[in-house]
Design brief:
The chain is of the alpha/beta class. The chain has ten helices and eight strands. Helix 4 (69-81) links the parallel strand 2 and strand 3. The longest helix has 18 residues, at 221-238.
């Protein structure tokens, strides 16, 4: 069953928000490309605006689309609370409703794995971004500690015993690199920021079922509760010290194409 971003919209930024140092690095990246001038920006899959709203705060004009009305609602609410204006609407990233050469910058952040025919997203950005503009693909690969790898792999295995299958995250970075070069030969890749993340085993156990339930709506309630119970029992034996950290590092990376 596809991941429901409607169901997790209200908690998305708590789990996937960028820390201040990453936002600062992101803004420096765009500022270097813009030369200090205000850009017209398009972000397909804008979600809650975690990447776009800092750009609006810096004076850039942002348009965004998303397939999740609830995510767009959160984006509007966040913009309003900050006194910002952002143009957002429901839409399909592989079929943008904008004229050719409308934007100076196109952004893709954690989107392509959600679009079956993802090269169409790149085609559309190639169409709507002007010559001399930029397309940036932001990724957030993670490096997990041994403890977190053990926790995550065991959970995935237990869930898949129920018949549920986790979606394989495609495309690969190599696949994206190939498709970028087919369209735009002028490419740079930059590591923008790194930061630690994590929580204790005790904190991870607390509210585990409620926190993850929106991600697994295809599993019936009885099976879900039995699976979570079995996993938590396993975690008690595997990690008897609740202070054990489940942590790692995130690397914010930008693939930048100059059109």
């Amino acid at each position: 069953m596809p991941l429901s971003f409607d169901a997790i919209a209200s908690q998305f930024d708590d789990q996937r928000g960028l820390p201040p140092e990453a936002i600062a690095a992101w803004l420096r990246c765009v500022d270097e490309l813009s030369g200090g001038r205000a850009l017209n920006v398009i972000e397909p899959g804008i979600g809650t605006g975690r990447v776009a709203l800092p750009l609006v705060a810096m004076g850039h004009r942002v348009s965004g689309i998303d397939t999740s009305p609830q995510m767009l609602d959160v984006c509007r609410q966040r913009a309003s609370a900050l006194g910002l204006t952002v143009d957002v609407a429901p839409g399909d990233a592989s079929e943008l409703t904008y004229d050719d050469h409308t934007f100076d910058l196109g952004i893709i952040a954690q989107l392509l794995y959600l679009v079956p025919d993802w090269p169409l997203v790149l085609d559309e950005l190639a169409r709507v971004v002007r010559h001399g503009g930029y397309v940036i693909h932001l990724t957030e690969p993670t490096i997990e500690s041994d403890a977190l790898q053990r926790w995550s792999s065991t959970w995935r295995s237990m869930v898949e015993v129920t018949g549920y299958r986790h979606t394989q995250l495609l495309p690969s970075e190599e696949g994206v690199a190939i498709e970028f070069l087919r369209r735009w030969p002028d490419i740079e890749v930059h590591e923008l920021a790194r930061w630690r993340f994590g929580q204790s085993v005790g904190d991870a156990r607390d509210g585990y079922s409620q926190r993850l339930r929106p991600l697994y709506l295809g599993i019936d309630d009885d099976t879900w509760e039995k699976t979570v119970s079995a996993f938590l029992d396993w975690s008690e034996a595997a990690f008897p010290n609740p202070e054990t950290m489940l942590d790692g590092e995130v690397v914010l990376t930008a693939r930048i194409a100059h059109l």
